Amino acid sequence: MKRRDFIKKAGVGALAAGAAMGAVPAMADKPVMWKMVTTWPPHFPILGEGADYIAKLVEEMSGGKFKISVYGAGELVPAMGVFDAVSQGTVEMGHGAAYYWSGKAPAAQFFAAVPFGFNAQSQNSWVTSGGGLELWEEIYKPFNLKPYLGGNTGVQMGGWFNKEIKSVDDLKGLKMRIPGLGGQVLAKAGGNAILVAAGEIYTNLERGVIDATEWVGPFHDLTIGLHKVAKFYYYPGWHEPGTTLEAMVNINAYEKLSPEFKAILDTAIARANSLMLAQFEARNNDDLNELVTKHKVQLKKFPDDVLKQLKVYANEVLEEMAAKDPMSKKVYESFKSFRSKIYEWNKTSEEPYQQFKYI
Amino acid sequence: MKRRDFIKKAGVGALAAGAAMGAVPAMADKPVMWKMVTTWPPHFPILGEGADYIAKLVEEMSGGKFKISVYGAGELVPAMGVFDAVSQGTVEMGHGAAYYWSGKAPAAQFFAAVPFGFNAQSQNSWVTSGGGLELWEEIYKPFNLKPYLGGNTGVQMGGWFNKEIKSVDDLKGLKMRIPGLGGQVLAKAGGNAILVAAGEIYTNLERGVIDATEWVGPFHDLTIGLHKVAKFYYYPGWHEPGTTLEAMVNINAYEKLSPEFKAILDTAIARANSLMLAQFEARNNDDLNELVTKHKVQLKKFPDDVLKQLKVYANEVLEEMAAKDPMSKKVYESFKSFRSKIYEWNKTSEEPYQQFKYI
After folding, report:
1. Which end of chain B is less congested by CB atoms within 10 angstroms, N or C?
2. How far off is chain B from A295, nearest CA to CA, in Å?
3. Which range of residues forms the domain containing residue B171?
């Protein structure tokens, strides 16, 4: 090929013109390289895999020009160091759940799990289309963070117990692994909410260090074998009816991205958010089936009286949180307003849908 | 700048190597220009807007190098011509709902709306993570089409009636606008399922050409003012408990896309799929509230006996469809298997969640 032909065909003229105007042509750019730290063990099923999936989509959509290296908990920073690492710009991005940061921003808990709060569908609707995201961004802005819906577990299970829960009195003195606002509700019922890291739940329950535990749902619970060390599997997961996972991005890092890469990142996270819920639903139904039919797990529903009293305590916990923290109060008002409306809509839609199976 | 520096900085060496190997550098490419035809009026709220949103995301993520022009029904091809236009490659892409193509591919209806079928959450789970997508692709492949989940209305309403439905007998002779499988179920109950285009529903109901109609849900129903021409607003939408919208892409056009643009298109559609459901949920709850409090609409639930008989008929319709069409049989088996498992899982998750509001 003659040099002149090459210049014409490869568009070097346009490229040179671009360079002269100060625009750096994309082909000459080094890839944007980001780090994402997570609160999950590396490649942890669905949760860690979801973080990996975000990185994969970003790399594919950008043709390898925007790459994100994903780190499991402890690989770069400890799980509970994710927030600070992203806030301070040590890394550009994180993946976890907002209730881990309740010590820094109590109101963030509304964007993870609220006892008797939203299921996944209502949470997605409130956050993206009901004013929730704007509030979440307001909470995180002082920390130089931009939050995203980053997955959802769906309705969780109520947990594993070795004694029957027939009344609220049965919760008194109970040593249960249950984090966050759910733990505060248990405390009001006279129980002891104990923090136990994921890797120690099985052993602690086996040895009687704890009497009971919640974890996630059939898929994850089966994986760590909780059915081997507890008799009863209770539902529903009143304490976490639609736990939202989160992605968080350092605002300075985000602002340095081109408009294309901003859109690519936002859209990759949104796709992961919905896929993770779909995966949870598909795997939970398979594994609930296995737990019941193969492992003969005894499913039990919390009695209505127990749920009723826990709901009273849950409202107290939220009211007290709102009384102490103005931002929590603001978010709680939005949450309550959306809840009262979506409850009415659910009465004519999702609630009767759930009865189809008995008709 | 010296010429040598320019070559080094702009990466022309790499570019030349690429060109020599036959790769056309991105900067020299003309934008990929696609057309998307839809079954919706232009920019129709949520549905047409969802199609617009896919195009917007694709353009943003590709930095303007992949553009999709969106056409409303009738602008380029009529609503019911979308399938053929995309199949034949007249345009690259379409947006609509799979039940519109039941004459060409009956089994496609499982990917739109099935009476007493899945809600949005279960449909998303079945399609993306439960084997549904592979079947849908198998149905569309002979038509040279690649299907996508392209939005969801959530649980629809049962429709607008001018007389009370107290028993199945009240459906006999009823002239109702209700399309698809739901219409076949109504016919089994002795009703007349009548096809009426969206723009004519209001007038036909006002003039008594039809006695009743379903449309979508509070948001769309309020928009066309159905509360002005009907007394009772029935729920639940047994005939369409989670209507899935679809995007479809011509396979030849898709295969010509770069890997980046394939990933960008797939991901844009996935984001639109979940956002549209979130928008429906947020707007429906506001507008149900307006219909009831401002317009004094009388909400009524179909009696259990009516729903029970309609479910019997619905199963007959599905069984007959499966008996006539091997592909429908194959999809129905997968649908039934997933349904039986997700029903069990729902009993311990979404179903008790729906009771929280009464506790």
Report:
1. N
2. 16
3. 159-239+296-324
